[in-house]
Amino acid sequence: MEAKEIPFKDIFDWVAVTNAEAIDDDFYHQTDVAKKVLKMIKTSPYGALIAVIGWQGIGKTRMMQWLQKELGKKAFSLKWISISHLRQLYAYFFGVPGPRSEDRPAIIKLHHTEKPMAFFIKRTLLIDLPDYTKRTVSLRDKHLDDIQWCRNLAMNFLRSRSYIKGAKSQLSTLVLFIQKELYTDHFFLNKFTKFELERIAPETLVDIFDFKFSKHPFAEGAVHQIAVLSRGIFRRFQDYIRLCMNEWLDKYEETAQSNQITIENVNEWIPTQKITKDMDLELSKCFRAPERRVVAAKVLKFLKKNEETGQAELISKFFDGNKMRASRILHGLEKGGYIACIKKGKFKYWRLKEW
């Protein structure tokens, strides 16, 4: 018996591929930020420091790969996985594998004799730092310290060679891709020109989906609702499409009917628990207490499904009549740029803020 063909297999294949792997999709990369970064790389003197900051899943790795593609052999990209990549950095700067990060004195002795590789001078180094958790955020400063240390070592190497004038102008341009959720200042980052990847507008996400798939099982407005629930994060958008397609396929196989996926289906099939988990790290910038982040995520999902809602209704529905607690969470979300307050006479109404 032949296996039954999966309907809309192209969509299932697309959501199974992470945004970092879908490098052939240039449609997404043609954004103002990507173009500005590429222009700065091409027009600035070598040795420039550039930081691209964005939420988890917004497309930092994808943008790095696109820049690598545009710059070709003039760029060297590195996906940072562990601290052992310091050895790769050393190999990039000096042409030989370096010792472990804790053996820095040995590296200092080596750099006086080793000759740097040909592409060390006048190139662009693209480094994609990992997504950190609240438990591993301390590693970020260690990674930045190591990168700065390697760069300073390389500059000293250039300055020690009398035939190289203007060491900094010869040093490779450095572009770092950094997670926004746990972003804090670092003395090395203060030297960088910073670009921020903005959330992708729901209409743009819908355009991307429609551009790739002319045929799909989503009813009118359903993909837009998924885009709204994803809060402009491309990885979440793909993940929520996957959740809905899996639910639809289960029902399709049970009933043998190709009913469309409606807005009501989207709201049912993407549970509040999933949205809460996805937004936990993001909302930690607004609320330190986990229980407040859970309530905040529930309020956001409710407002995504409804138009502007009176504060009194929200207090009754989510805060058990506790006005003080409601005020703290609602104003925290407002300060974080998630919702907006509308005053009508003596009454306050809240709506989701566009991004």
Features:
single chain; 355 residues; alpha/beta; Rossmann fold; Arc Repressor Mutant, subunit A; 2 domains; five-stranded parallel β-sheet; 8 strands
Structure description:
The chain has 355 residues and is an alpha/beta fold. It folds into two domains: 32-196, 3-Layer(aba) Sandwich (Rossmann fold); 271-355, Winged helix-like DNA-binding domain superfamily/Winged helix DNA-binding domain (Arc Repressor Mutant, subunit A), CATH 1.10.10.10. Helices cover 49% and strands 12% of the residues. It is built from 16 helices and eight strands. The protein has helices spanning 9-15, 26-29, 32-43, 60-71, 85-94, 104-110, 138-159, 167-170, 202-212, 222-229, 234-255, 263-269, 272-283, 290-305, 311-318, 323-335; strands at residues 49-54, 75-79, 124-128, 173-179, 193-196, 309-310, 339-344, 347-352. The strands form two sheets. The chain has a five-stranded parallel beta sheet with strand order 2-3-4-1-5, with helices on one face. Strands 6-8-7 form a three-stranded antiparallel beta sheet. A hairpin with a 2-residue loop joins strand 7 (339-344) and strand 8 (347-352). Helix 5 (85-94) packs parallel to helix 7 (138-159), helix 9 crosses helix 10 and helix 13 crosses helix 14. It is globular and about 70 Å long. Mean pLDDT is 79; it is low at 95-119.
Number of distinct beta strands: 8
Can you tell me the CATH architecture of the largest domain?
Answer: 3-Layer(aba) Sandwich
Separation, N- and C-terminal Cα atoms:
51 Å
Class per helix and strand makeup: alpha/beta
Helix-strand string: HHHEHEHHEHHEEHHHHHHEHHEE
Number of helices: 16
Strand content range: 5-15%
**Major sheet:** 5 strands, parallel
Helical proportion, percent range: 40-55%
